[in-house]
């Protein structure tokens, strides 16, 4: 009997009682049916196989993240951190959840509100994702915590995707993805919430590597068949999505990607001569710059109509040197290493008194070995001593690594960018993340080669590398103290609940002491950005802190009579504030609480930890209205909110001296900025103190006065300025020898604003020299007219 072909044998079907008999299928129909089943089965197996490695990456990353952060102790509503820069990002999250226009926050910076466009960062995509998470919860602390935690598996998946696109074995790509998601110190990066979204970096690196290898980031739509045209269109859509994603996830990662894309174009030009292909390859770079630039312009557009008074939070070229990285930081373990001996090694280095980097640049032992391997292969190829030519991909990675290091290191190309293009990208040490990714990719390619030769040995090697890397790069002992964070938030919530119950919605609360935003620095026991803490839990009130320094919305506070408490509370009441809050951590012996209690009566609310106390101003307003009348009260409000303010050119580098005075180190000179908020010309007299860096003679020249000699010690100077409105610059020029200042720069001395007087007695005047509420030392005599 002839045997039937397997493709024509019909499979037995179950017989249903009472059902009519089915007609027998022909051999051709059976073959077609089995063929379809075979194709569907093969497709299902391919999908399952393709999803296996990403699923393993996701699960392993989630497990490592949960262990590292001890997420089993977290509860919805618990903040990751309530200090420092973490408060800034959580305030942005709150503003997004409130549904207001991006970059405009009326909740802070009362009475005008905050216009964040003066400090644009191109974080649009992060804000969109935060708003989507807001569908799950309206709590800014919950949404910020979720966004931070979800960034770990997201980073693992994008790094895994990149490794697979570059040809890594699925098991090796799992190692790359998981280790990239927990790069050293990632678990402590909540203070920079959007920068902690490392998942954008592998997307940008794909653009860079693809361009450097000569591959098409964008494919030509002219294809001979519809199928090829659809494939090209799909490829282009994906590439454009990646470009836009990188461009809208922060100016730092976009700029780093753009700089490496420039390097990739050079590599491509060397590998494939020809202007046409080079111009086509430059299209993604142009789109990336246009995307990020458009976001920055959109943010700056929100600042139209705002009055700038000087002293905006601008970066300097020197900042690029200070915030760049060091090669030693890449080699040493991170300071939070779980092994005490390795952590102590880094601590000993940091205690040598050398200039320290502002953020951790450690990349971990696995990425470090990968970087060393890339450099060794590159060096051997350069001297022609390799037995066989290195793989083109390894060569490309080896060329990108020194390029990234050249921008990362102090005295490198980052400083050149700051000098010739813009100094706004000051923290070049953050390029260590890209260095770590290149090193991990090199390790992934090495494991791939091992897996293809000896699968079992390669699998064991992947497991060992993953275990060693996770142990080296994470430390559960540094997980947030969730119980302490819950207690701190509960204290704030209880305080703001009582305050909101005592005040009508929309009331403005003045926060004392005055701290400038951003980057004021700590004040007594009060950390930078601490005034934002009650704004996270109080949602119906407005708060005075948060307007951008160097603008009229913030600098009116500089002219408040902080040494005259009765006049101060009257001014605040006239300006429309209904309460004044005292943060006792910002004061020493000059804490005004007792005096405010005498002036205003009992407090409206006091926090359970005794740190915050709020007093009512409504009775003060009523008394002023009854005594002076509505017209006089309106004139007083206008005088309070529209003073003349004097600022140093670079407030960020001004130093706090004894008595709370601020001074600026100068070389051959600097500029003072007089901001006139009154809307009419004002005659301003400035009294300045110049102190030479040593006793050698120097000459100081001010506009409208004869040059004054300074032969050592301090000299008092007087300048008369006509401030016509807006910003008026007052140049101060110093002639004479320079010397090395405390920060290592060449300087001639330091300059202080001692006093500023306006001819119109009805106009208030303020200066930025004082960072504490302690009285500054006034000179015994002033220079003559």
Automatic annotation (TrEMBL):
Protein name: Integral membrane protein
Regions crossing the membrane: 128-150, 162-183, 190-209, 240-266, 278-297, 362-383, 390-411, 431-451
Segments of this protein annotated with the region Disordered: 1-31
Keywords associated with the record: Membrane, Transmembrane, Transmembrane helix
Tagged with keyword Transmembrane helix: yes
Domain of life assignment: Bacteria
Protein's organism: Lapillicoccus jejuensis
């Amino acid at each position: 009997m002839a045997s039937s072909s397997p493709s024509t044998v019909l499979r037995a079907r179950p017989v249903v009682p009472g059902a009519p008999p089915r007609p027998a299928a022909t051999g051709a129909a059976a073959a077609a049916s089995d063929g379809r089943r075979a194709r569907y089965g093969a497709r299902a197996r391919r999908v399952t196989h393709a999803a296996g490695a990403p699923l393993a990456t996701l699960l392993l990353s989630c497990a490592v993240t949960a262990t590292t952060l001890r997420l089993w102790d977290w509860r919805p509503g618990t903040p990751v951190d309530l200090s420092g820069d973490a408060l800034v990002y959580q305030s942005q999250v709150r503003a997004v959840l409130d549904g207001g226009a991006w970059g405009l926050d009326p909740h802070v910076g009362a009475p005008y509100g905050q216009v964040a466009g003066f400090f644009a960062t191109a974080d649009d995509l992060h804000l969109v994702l935060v708003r989507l998470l807001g569908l799950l919860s309206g709590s800014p602390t919950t949404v910020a915590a979720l966004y931070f935690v979800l960034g770990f598996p997201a980073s693992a998946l994008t790094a895994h995707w990149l490794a697979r696109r570059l040809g890594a074995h699925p098991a090796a790509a799992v190692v790359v993805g998981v280790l990239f998601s927990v790069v050293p110190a990632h678990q402590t990066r909540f203070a920079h919430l959007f920068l902690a979204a490392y998942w954008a970096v592998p997307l940008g690196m794909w653009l860079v590597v693809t361009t450097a290898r000569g591959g098409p980031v964008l494919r030509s739509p002219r294809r001979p068949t519809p199928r090829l045209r659809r494939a090209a269109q799909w490829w282009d859509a994906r590439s454009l999505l990646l470009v836009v994603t990188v461009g809208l996830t922060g100016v730092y990662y976009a700029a780093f990607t753009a700089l490496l894309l420039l390097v990739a174009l050079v590599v491509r030009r060397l590998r494939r001569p020809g202007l046409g292909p080079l111009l086509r390859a430059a299209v993604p770079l142009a789109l990336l710059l246009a995307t990020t630039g458009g976001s920055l312009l959109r943010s700056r557009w929100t600042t139209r109509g705002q009055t700038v008074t000087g002293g905006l939070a601008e970066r300097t070229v020197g900042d690029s040197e200070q915030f760049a990285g060091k090669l030693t930081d890449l080699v040493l373990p991170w300071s939070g290493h779980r092994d005490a001996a390795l952590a102590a090694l880094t601590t000993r280095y940091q205690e040598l008194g050398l200039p320290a980097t502002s953020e951790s640049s450690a990349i971990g032992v696995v990425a470090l070995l990968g970087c060393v391997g890339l450099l060794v292969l590159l060096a051997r190829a350069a001297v022609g001593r390799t037995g066989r030519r290195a793989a083109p991909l390894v060569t490309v990675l080896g060329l990108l690594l020194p390029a990234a290091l050249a921008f990362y290191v102090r005295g490198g190309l980052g400083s050149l960018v700051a000098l010739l293009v813009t100094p706004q990208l000051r923290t070049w040490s953050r390029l260590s993340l890209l260095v770590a990714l290149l090193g991990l990719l090199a390790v992934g390619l090495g494991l791939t080669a091992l897996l293809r030769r000896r699968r079992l040995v390669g699998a064991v090697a992947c497991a060992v590398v993953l275990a060693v890397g996770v142990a080296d790069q994470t430390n559960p002992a540094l997980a947030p103290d969730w119980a302490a964070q819950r207690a701190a938030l509960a204290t704030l919530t209880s305080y703001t609940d009582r305050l909101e119950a005592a005040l009508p919605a929309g009331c403005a609360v003045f926060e004392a002491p005055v701290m400038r935003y951003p980057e004021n620095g700590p004040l007594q026991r009060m950390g930078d950005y601490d005034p934002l803490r009650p704004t996270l839990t109080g949602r119906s009130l407005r708060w005075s802190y948060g307007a951008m320094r160097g603008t009229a919305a913030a600098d009116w506070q500089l002219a408040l009579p902080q040494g005259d408490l009765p006049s101060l509370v009257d001014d605040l009441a006239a300006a429309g504030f209904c309460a004044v809050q005292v943060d006792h951590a910002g004061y020493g012996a000059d804490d005004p609480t007792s005096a405010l209690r005498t002036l205003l009566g009992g407090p409206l609310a006091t926090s359970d930890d005794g740190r915050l106390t709020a007093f009512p101003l409504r009775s003060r307003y009523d008394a002023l209205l009854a005594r002076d009348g509505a017209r006089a009260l309106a004139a007083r409000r206008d005088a309070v909110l529209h003073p003349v303010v004097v600022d140093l050119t670079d407030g960020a580098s001004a130093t706090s001296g004894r008595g709370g005075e601020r001074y600026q180190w100068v070389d051959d000179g600097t500029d003072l900025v007089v901001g006139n908020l009154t809307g009419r010309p004002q005659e301003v007299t400035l009294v300045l103190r110049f102190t030479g860096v040593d006793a050698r003679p120097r000459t100081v020249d001010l506009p409208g006065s004869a040059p004054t000699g300074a032969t050592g010690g301090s000299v008092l100077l007087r300048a008369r300025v006509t401030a016509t409105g807006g910003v008026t610059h007052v140049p101060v020029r110093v002639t004479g020898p320079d010397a090395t200042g405390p920060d290592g720069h060449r300087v001639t001395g330091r300059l202080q604003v001692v006093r500023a007087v306006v001819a119109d007695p009805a106009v208030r005047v303020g200066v930025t020299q004082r960072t504490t509420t302690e009285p500054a030392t006034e000179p015994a005599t002033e220079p003559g007219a």
